[in-house]
Amino acid sequence: MRDEVLRRVRAAVATLVLAGLLVAPWVVDDYTAAILARTLALGLVGVSVALLTGVAGMPTLGQTAPYAAGAYASAVLGSQVSDVGVVQVAVAALAGATLAAVTLPLVVPARGVIVLMITLAIGELVVTVLGRWRSVTGGTDGLAGIAGVRPFWGLPVLATDQARYLYTLVVVATLVGAVLLLLRTRAGVLLRAGRDDEMRLRASGHRVPLYLSGAHVAAGAIAGAAGSLLVVAQQYISPADFGFDTSALLLLGVVIGGTASVGGALVGAALVIAVRDWLFGVLPGHAPLVLGALFVATVYLLPTGVTRARRPRPVPAPRPPDVAPTRDRDATPELRV
Amino acid sequence: MNCLLSAEKISVRYGSLAALTDVDLCVHDGQRHALIGPNGAGKTTLLSVLGATTRPQRGTVRFVGRDVSRLGPAARARRGINRTHQRPAVFATLTAIENIEVAALPRTIRRRRWSPGGTRGAARRTAAELLDQLGLSDLATVPAGHLAHGQRRQLEIAMALAGRPRLLLLDEPAAGLSATEVGRLAELLAALPRQVAVLLVEHHLDLVYALCDTVTVLRDGRTVAAGTPDEIRTSPLVRRAYADGVS
Amino acid sequence: MIAVAAGPNRIDPYVIPALDGVAYGLLVFVAAAGLVFCFGVANILNLAHGMLYAIGGYTAAAVLDGSWASLALALGVGVLAAAAAGVLLAGLLTPVATGNHLTQALLTFGVALAGGSLLVAGFGPDDPQVLVPAALDGSVQVAGHRYAAYRLVFIVVATALAAGLYLTVRRTRAGMLVRAAVDDPEMVACLGVSPTRIRVGVLAAGGALAGAAGVLGAPIIGPGADTADTVLLLSLVVVVLGGLGSMVGTLLAALAIGEIQTLGVALLPSAAPFLLFAAMAAVLAVRARGLALRWAAT
Asked: What sequence ranges are listed for the domain ABC transporter (chain B) (predicted)?
């Protein structure tokens, strides 16, 4: 019953938000358009968080790492390679995917909450590196004055905030559409199966680490692409854009949107970021306090959904089979998809 | 000799407890082989060793003549050993048909023969057929987590079959099933293609004697007897083995 | 051989950072012990752990006035305040106790956010000054170099604390329970101890440890707006590298991190930002299999 109500509320809110996002460029002023563009970029990162957390069962607090990699790659390299937006998005996605690929051995063998810890650590360390690598990233001062972008060959450089917002909207819509399509293929059902019962998936002969690696790299590419959008939206980036606070807010947004729902993640993440911005504008001193309360309230009111701790991998040292951990089996599954 | 699956001198210890000691087992192609014995005999441990979820201290497992001792569960499944578990393992948020579909999907990226609907379409057709065979077609779109215990057990057997195994390891498939369900299970197992060998751990002795052509008896981690159901049924050794057990 | 004998200049620049590394590492160990404890025993990922350390640090800044009495007071108040915050966390976690780790992460993060905001509101956004007792404020001769007296004393005290922790875990009944719980958390429930009690106890103890570290370590990692995040990150890296199996592993991991942050930076200043990351990557890549096995129980 409660699930039904929740579903309808989410659907209604999502429709409203999406309608608003479509109408925005013609309705809002420059400043708001820029903010919305940045919010959309973060929403896309939220999509990558949902892909890992909800669909693959790898809860993550570290998607800001490929996001940052993509942003800096776009700002530093992209502008040297080409000023075409699509190319910069591709460069950024590649950077994000590369970082994800490099961190695979750290993340893929881990299960459950350990993934949260490791991804948090990775995210923080990447941001620290960015802050200190002054020669390339400008350190904590960030990079400003980034050149404008032409969305596609033959089109003029994006000159207004509204134009930049539209560009962001189109890219996000395309990428989210691609993710949704991909999840309808066997990749989607295999990831969800592994999330539900990894051991059963292995028992059917599937190479689970391979699938998890694929999901991780794909999520890295998406977050990286979002980084390029951030650069276009703000025309300025600094390590402060990629802190651990952002990761936690994204996770909150994903949970609010329905952990395994990709569309919900976009809307949820965008909403949470918007609320944060609004709070910081309205209550500059006490915004974190209210946000903290929001976290606690969400946890009390909403089921956090899909992240079942995966069953442990087979242990080479023998264990009595009937004493093997079974608590995950008995946990009542969250049946939302 | 020529066993499809052979376990040689398998020993498993947990600290000072010897779960299995020097157990040998041979399952032939197409055989219906039962593993019985009182509680604590080590039957499930042996099945775990064969399914690679437990690594023995000593011993070798060979499949189709090759040593598979070092292979994990996924690798063994790809070679053709599929199993079910004591507690039916299903993908709770996936529908029944999706469960079997996953099990039927190819595990490698090698190019397959083209079929309508692509690989997922082919897998879905296999899944639909298997569901039909089980008589569970009207549950196709129900999330597996919502299924009753007996239905989940049947679903897991279907998932094991979907992998086109050469050897099926079944861990107490009749446990927790009603009489009708046991009957249906017996029909399903009897109707299995001849090329699929079955190794069955069971307490339900009627099912065992009706279905199987070979029985191995374990007690206290050792093999006590092996032979045809008739031989086992009348063996005094076996009776003594069970006398102290709670079977 | 000849190089070492002929030139004290060779090893000189590194003795101080190396000692610093020991001090830093020991501090990280005591600070992280609370997180290891929470996670290993009660399977709680406490993202407010850094905040608990910061509570200790801010208490030290507020109470310390250069006298020994104030140091004792700061320690007492800091430990109590942080432990109380831990109990509060346990209370907040109780209604969602059956939730998964995502729940805990979000809830504890929310508390950290709110708590951090309150601390900054109370003490201001700048790093407050910490006044150590005058006797410890100077420097001392060590192997021909001057070294901060406080850090030397800290090394001694922290070592004693670590030894105390080790003995408690190894020799007392409570310690045995803790070790058993780390091996198999479900067993603890079977022993008839209420999970709520365990949660409260574990978070209080973890808080107390973090608070003590915050007070004593204030001159090394002092209170400030970033402290909570820094300490949380370092503690997480210790847990990830050191594993949950043994205190010795945790200690070694902490010392390694301390040395990387100090000696490592001194030896390879241009690689400084990457060192911790690279070290973590190297250790994990080698241990991934072993860690996964240990975590199979969690």
From this structure: 5-245
Query: Does the distance separating the beta carbons of C236 and A296 come in below 8 Å?
Result: no
Residue-wise pLDDT for A4-26, tens only, equals: 888 888 888 888 888 888 888 88
CB contact under 8 A, C103 and A299: yes
Q: pLDDT digits over B62-120, tens only?
A: 999 899 998 889 999 999 999 999 889 999 999 999 999 999 998 876 555 565 667 78
Residue-wise pLDDT tens digits, A123-149? 888 888 888 777 777 777 788 877 778
Residues of chain A in contact with residue B102, where contact means CB-CB under 8 angstroms, are 189-190, 193, 201, 204, 206
Contact with chain A for residue B123, Cβ under 8 A: yes
Question: Within 10 Å of residue C200's Cβ, how many Cβ atoms?
Answer: 20
Beta bridge partners of B216: B35, B226
All domains of chain B, ordered by start, with CATH?
Answer: 5-89+166-243 (3.40.50.300), 91-146 (no CATH)
Residue A319's region, left for phi above 0, alpha for psi from -120 to 50, else beta, is beta
Alpha helices in A283-323 (DSSP H): 287-301
Residue contact A299–C96, C-beta within 8 A: yes
pTM for the predicted model, two decimal places: 0.85
Is C105 in contact with A251 (CB distance < 8 Å)? yes
Q: Is the Cβ pair B53, A186 closer than 8 Å?
A: no
Q: Which domains does chain A have, with CATH numbers?
A: 2-307 (1.10.3470)
In contact, B207 and B186? CB cutoff 8 Å: yes
Residues of A in contact with C115 (CB under 8 A): 292
Helix, coil or strand: residue A302 = coil
**Residue corresponding to tokens 């529908």:** B95
